[in-house]
Amino acid sequence: MTWHPGRKVSSKVLKQNALAAHPQIAPHIPYTLAFNASNLKLMLVKYRMVFVKPIKGSLGKGVIQVTKIEGGYCYKVDSKKYTVKSYDSLVKGLASKKLKRAYIIQQGIDLLRIDGSPVDYRVKYCIDNGVWNYRVILARVAGPGYAITNLSKGGRKLDCNLAIKQTLGSDAISQTISEMKHLTRLCTSVLEQRFPGLTHLGYDYGIDKNGKIWIFEVNTSPN
Q1: What is the dotted CATH code of the domain comprising 12-29+110-219?
Q2: Residues forming a β-bridge with 72
Q3: Are 68 and 49 in contact (CB under 8 A)?
Q4: Tens-digit pLDDT profile for residues 11-33
Q5: Positions of E strands within 32-130
Q6: Which residues pair with 217 in a beta bridge?
Q7: 0.85 exceeded by the pTM?
Q8: How far apart (Å, rounded) are the C-alpha atoms in residues 83 and 75?
């Protein structure tokens, strides 16, 4: 995590709630609930795949992918996959793997893939000389066997244009980047009003198989 003098907001819930209240941003926010056994069951019935994430966390630490499969459930911690037959066994298994902190459950998105691995995008947006500027726009491809793309968890960087070309085609490059930039500006405006003093933001975007852009997280201390 990079240090900078601007304001930091560690809670994913606070940031997501601020963004989800905006009518143009809300459709791009994955459905999210506080983690408990009953909410997890509801989410798995509705989405079949979800991510269980610490409310306060970074670098992919503590993130667990959970999927409802035929005959039971599976959950993935980093690249290690566990399969259980009963829901009670799933809850017990997660309890043994979760970090000792509060968690949320986030709707899983079926991301576009490169070489069989999920790909997402990081847009780093920072204040330089009093003006917000795009400092980095890049793609990240998950490491083999991983469901998350964090570089600290084996992910690799890829040129943004190349990633869009490989997943959506050359004709989609300009429009996709333009939409991510528009969402970045809009979200930043909302977050600045809610959390004055922000200077560095890292947006994590995903694109599903229908070409829709999703906002997974906004980090106030982006790498």
Answers
A1: 3.30.470.20
A2: 69
A3: yes
A4: 889 999 999 999 999 999 999 99
A5: 32-34, 49-54, 64-69, 72-77, 80-84, 103-107, 113-114, 117-128
A6: 204
A7: yes
A8: 7
